[in-house]
Amino acid sequence: MKTQEYKEQFQQIFENSMIGMAIVDLKGNWVRANKSLCDMLGYAEEELVQLNVRDLSRPSDLERTDELLNRLITGDTPHAKLEKEYKHKEGHFIWVAIAVTLLYDTSGTPMHYVSQLEDITRRKEIEDDLLLSEKKYRTIFENVQDVFYQTDHKGIIKEISPSIEMHSGYMRQEIIGKPVENFYYYVEDRDRIVQELQTSGSVIDFEVRLKTKTDELKYASVNARLVFENGQLVGGEGSMRDVTARKFNENVLQALNQELAASNEQKNRLFSIIGHDLRNPISGSLQLVDLMLHDIRTNATDEIERSLRMMQNELQSASELLEDLLTWARAQLNAVDFNRVEIHDIEDILRSSIQPAQTMAEKKEVTITIREVAAGAALSADRSMLKTIIRNLVTNAVKFTDPGGQVNISVEKKTSGLLFIVRDNGRGIPEEKVAHLFNRSFTYTTFGTNGEKGTGLGLDLCQGFVRKHGGEIWVESKLGEGSAFYFIIPRL
Fold this sequence. Notes:
The protein is α+β, with helices and mostly antiparallel strands. It has 4 domains: about 1-120, Beta-Lactamase; about 145-240, 2-Layer Sandwich (Beta-Lactamase), CATH 3.30.450; about 250-330; about 340-490, Histidine kinase-like ATPase, C-terminal domain (Heat Shock Protein 90, 2-Layer Sandwich). It has 14 helices and 17 strands. It has a 5-stranded antiparallel beta sheet, sandwiched between helices. A 5-stranded antiparallel beta sheet has the order 7-6-10-9-8. The radius of gyration is 48 Å and the shape is rod-shaped.
């Protein structure tokens, strides 16, 4: 009686099941099919039982299907599961998930296959769409030049695009699993971006400095955000773009702008000198000529002599200024000849260089002394440039030294070359001006102790000519105590 009940229960389950069910003989012929399966395949049961499973299968699936069914027959597995395509009555194929077991007779001999079939066509379409989307993402991920990355909540790199190799020299396998902080050139950049992420949750176009596998510095622009799940921080993700070339161009442009600003400053200074410092002595000399013409008519010889001496001073000042202007202008155009020769007569060079400043020094009762020249001092340099450097430094020293003061010159041997020192006990330079004295964009001019005017060109010339020799020039000064200008010319 129970057997009959079981048969009836199976029959009810078979007929009313929401998924397709079928009984298939061992040769693959359909024996029974419920309504769900018939609806799924588009056949009436009477039509379906006239067909074999192979009639609805793709040829490419047959070998795999036979292999699974044989494992059921041999007892290798109690049931078999597979996904395959069946041909619908209308001609298109649908995807079906199949679970198969064997039905045995009372003697234990296999009689039929009992199959449960579920239409998974929509699921397969979604999977295909996901695979296609993933393939597109993977193609972009692997080929885009920007670097995409993901980290966990501790900053360990979980994923990074292969483009990292092009920018850093690291293979992605060398980076995954490593702390992101290992790849910052400066740790403060890491601290800055972490602080911004903690504050805002994201960063846009955030510039950091990273290091390559060979410790080269690279600039990168980072877009990143924190990732949360259920309110908990689980990591971060973002992209990086190599902006090293852009940064280099920005620096070049900045340098050019600074050079242009300095050039404009020099131009303005030049016009100021021409319009004031050079015109005044010429105008003054013309006025003196008018006075002398008047004195000649009145035979005032003493007045004529006094006017001539004043004119001499004015013209001497104008001549020196004009010489500096011309030399400075040629230097700006790189038109100054550079003739390096061996120089052994250092003391003679010093004496001839300080001669133009002697007249001013005598009037102010300032003593110019060559204090010390190291024995055997010699160097390879351009004589004219060397004399121009010394002349300008000595003239400046006299100009800013009070009457009765001293200007001392010395030359010392150093390992790197000859060190020239021009030292005075004059008024000195304010501390805030010293650091900028050789900055071309900074102009520092002031009157001498007797009202002498300065242009600032002399120090420009000195710095340019010293650098031409590969040397250095600097100053030490204390307000009210004097200044010492140093320059060193390297030995060759």
